[in-house]
Amino acid sequence: MFDSLPVLPLFDQPAPTPFVAPEPLTKSAKLWLPKRVLFTPDALDEPFGQQIYERVMAHDLEVEVLKSNRLTNLRGADARETYRNAKNTLAVVKAPAGALRLQPTPPSADWQMNLAEGCPAHCQYCYLAGSLQGPPVVRVFANLPQLLENTANYEQPGRLTSFEVSCYTDVLGIEHLTGSLAECIRHYGTREGARLRFVSKYNHVDSLLDLPHQGHTRARVSLNAEPVARRMEGGTASIEARIQALRKLALPVALGGGGYPVGVVLAPIMLVPDWRKHYTNLLDRVADALDFDCDLTVEFITHRFTPGSRDVLREWYPNTSLNFDESIRAAKRNKFGGVKYVYQPDDMRPLKQFFYEEWQRRFPNAPILYWT
Ligand code: SF4
């Protein structure tokens, strides 16, 4: 039945025939070394801010200490230059008091716990487009220990409360400069009633392997079909490198791994030409890499966009081949009147059936957390 599914023109190029799985690329992500590093005075007053300062200096980066706590002069001559400059800027700031009021983040976790906002990667469908205000500078929070302590107020007695740190950044993409993810993992290792969740498209996991996580952190990697990753996810690790990172995180400590509960986030699922073959190839490779018992989950997220995110993405990536044609989508409204465009039910149904069947066949003991 899947062969009869119409393929939506998400990419401009025609489908290759016959199907040949692309040779896996093994490239690691390049370490992000921003051209500009800004510290606000308040951030430098924080002991954790000082630690970030040391890390940044150890990477031979120049630091500008600002005179005030406001970030200014972030815009370039036009949208392209603003984007380019912002993606090359790390700003270390103190999170405002509002950051202590956590927001729910279903279905991924109970609450968001943001250690930073902004991301060094260049995904053409980026989830942050339209949700963060202003130029997409990476803002890292120097008062992280205070933010972490605050989350204890959200733990509910008698049940495990989950905190997601990946809503507004790629936590591994900035970890070499911040150490923030390690700080979170150590913190939640001491909290019996709380669980931490993160997800990444980077592969630098070695610094996480020896941390005392106590099984309280679920380490997830974001995976996709090769054509999506290669053409849409600039600056990230290759799919193969991410799969090998997943293996390292999941391997028992006695075998040199991190012994973490792990997860796959398959997102955003796209109806690219030959989608069934590409995703089959991906799932086969994950199964090959996880050839041992481990605590594994999966989350399935199909591609969607809002009018706001589409406008921002078109500005950021004017040459994108991502198709934003609303006429081949279903409009889904939320209770505040906002609209997002998702796949139509006739497309969604076979997609869902395919992923559920193929996942359960390979990983019968790994729960599917949700499909959206
Ligand atoms: S990794 Fe996530 S946050 Fe970063 S650019 Fe890609 S989609 Fe956006």
What is the CATH architecture annotation?
A: Alpha-Beta Horseshoe
The CATH topology corresponds to: pyruvate-formate lyase- activating enzyme
How would you characterize the largest beta sheet?
Answer: 8 strands, mixed
Q: What radius of gyration results from the CA coordinates?
A: 21 Å
Give the uncertain stretches in residue-range form.
1-9
Shape: globular
Strand content: 15-25%
Q: Number of domains in the coordinates?
A: 1
First-last Cα distance = 22 Å
Bound molecules: iron/sulfur cluster
CATH uppermost class: Alpha Beta
Mean pLDDT: 94
How many strands appear in the DSSP assignment? Answer: 17
User: Largest beta sheet: what is the strand line-up?
Assistant: 4-5-9-10-11-13-14-17
Going by helix content, strand content and strand pairing, the class is alpha/beta
The helix content is 25-40%
N-to-C series of helices and strands? EHHEHEEEEEEHEHHEEHEHEHEHEEHE
Number of helical segments? 11
Written description of the protein model:
The chain contains eleven helices and 17 strands. The chain has helices at residues 41-45, 47-58, 79-86, 144-150, 175-178, 180-189, 226-232, 239-250, 275-289, 307-316, 345-362; strands at residues 36-39, 63-65, 89-93, 104-105, 109-112, 116-117, 122-123, 138-141, 161-164, 194-200, 217-223, 233-234, 262-269, 296-302, 329-333, 339-343, 368-371. Helix 9 (275-289) packs parallel to helix 11 (345-362). Helices cover 29% and strands 20% of the residues. It starts with 35 loop residues before the first strand and ends with a strand. The chain has a single domain (2-16, 32-371), classed as pyruvate-formate lyase- activating enzyme, CATH 3.80.30.30. Strands 4-5-9-10-11-13-14-17 form an eight-stranded mixed β-sheet, with helices on one face. A five-stranded mixed β-sheet has the order 2-1-3-8-6. A two-stranded antiparallel ribbon has the order 7-12. The model is unreliable at 1-9 (pLDDT under 50). Strand 4 and strand 5 form a beta hairpin. It has 372 residues and is an alpha/beta fold. 40% of the residues are buried. Bound molecules: iron/sulfur cluster. Iron/sulfur cluster (SF4) binds at residues 119, 121-123, 126-128, 170, 201. It holds the Pfam family SPL. This is Radical SAM protein. InterPro entries: SPL.
